[in-house]
Amino acid sequence: MYVFLKELDPAKRLDFLPYIFKSSKSKEDKYAWRTKEILAASLGKYVELYEQQVVIENFVPLFFNYSYDTVARVSQAVASSFGPILEKVKGDKV
Question: What is the pTM (predicted TM-score) of this model?
């Protein structure tokens, strides 16, 4: 989805936020951790596409949720997103 969103007008990208976060909330599927792992690994790329305020309100909480996920592969995958998130929000109090 990142490649698709990268080609969209930045104003239209906001319309797709619910689709990104829908996969992060799936708890009824015992294999949902795989989807979360994929999203966690690419979270840093998504952060590059959105404005600072959107990142602070949406992606930072998701980052911390994934950091404390009970599946180690999810929490390990999200670690690489810390740099891009920090870079995006620097200078602002989170």
Answer: 0.84
